[in-house]
C-alpha cells in the first residue's frame, strides 16, 4: 500500500488472524474515555477500546463505509498518521448475518431459560456477544439507509 500524504493508515489486528489495512480520512471508536474521532495529524494517543464498532471512512468516501466490530478488550494507538487497533476479536460489520444472529440469540436465551446450559456464565457471555453483534448489524443497516 503506497502511503498518501492526506490519508491515515489504519491497521486492525487480532490474535485470530483477522487483519485489515486501509487508507482512510477518519476513524471513529468507543474508548474507555468516550467516543473519539481520529483525523489526519491527530495528537499521539493510546486508549483502551470498549467493545463495539470502529467506523472507518476510506479515502474517497464521504461517510464511513467500513465497520469493524471489536469484541472483548482492545487498544487503539495513534501516531504519525497511523492508527493501529489491536483487539481480542474483530471482523467486518458487513459479514454480520442478522438472521443467523437472531436464531443464535433465541437458542441461547432458550438454553438459559430451560437451564440446559451446562456452563451458564459462558452461555451468558455468548448471549451478550451475539446481542452486541446484532445491535451493531442493525445500526449498520440503519446508517446505510440514511442519505
Keywords:
147 residues; ATP Synthase, domain 1; elongated
- CATH fold-level topology of the largest domain: ATP Synthase, domain 1
At CATH level 2, the architecture of the largest domain is: Sandwich
> CATH homologous superfamily of the largest domain?
F0F1 ATP synthase delta/epsilon subunit, N-terminal
How many DSSP helices? 2
Question: Quick summary of this structure?
Answer:
The chain is α+β, with helices and mostly antiparallel strands. It is built from 2 helices and 7 strands. A 5-stranded mixed barrel has the order 1-2-5-6-7.
Q: How would you characterize this protein structure?
A:
With 147 residues, this protein is an alpha+beta fold. The chain folds into two domains: 8-94, ATP Synthase, domain 1; 96-144. It contains two helices and seven strands. It has helices spanning 98-113, 120-144; strands at 8-13, 19-31, 34-38, 45-49, 52-58, 66-79, 82-92. A five-stranded mixed beta barrel has the order 1-2-5-6-7. The protein is elongated and about 55 Å long.
Amino acid at each position: 500500500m503506497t502511503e498518501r500524504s492526506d490519508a491515515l493508515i489504519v491497521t486492525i489486528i487480532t490474535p485470530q488472524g483477522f487483519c485489515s489495512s486501509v487508507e482512510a480520512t477518519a476513524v471513529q471508536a468507543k474508548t474507555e474515555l468516550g467516543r473519539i474521532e481520529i483525523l489526519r495529524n491527530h495528537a499521539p494517543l493510546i486508549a483502551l477500546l470498549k467493545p463495539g464498532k470502529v467506523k472507518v471512512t476510506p479515502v474517497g468516501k464521504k461517510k464511513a463505509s467500513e465497520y469493524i466490530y471489536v469484541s472483548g478488550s482492545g487498544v487503539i494507538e495513534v501516531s504519525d498518521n497511523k492508527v493501529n487497533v489491536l483487539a481480542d476479536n474483530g471482523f467486518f460489520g458487513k459479514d454480520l448475518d442478522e438472521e443467523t444472529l437472531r436464531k443464535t440469540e433465541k437458542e441461547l436465551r432458550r438454553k438459559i431459560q430451560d437451564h440446559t446450559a451446562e456452563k451458564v456464565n459462558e452461555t451468558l457471555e455468548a448471549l451478550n456477544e451475539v446481542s452486541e453483534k446484532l445491535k451493531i448489524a442493525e445500526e449498520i443497516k440503519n446508517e446505510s439507509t440514511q442519505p
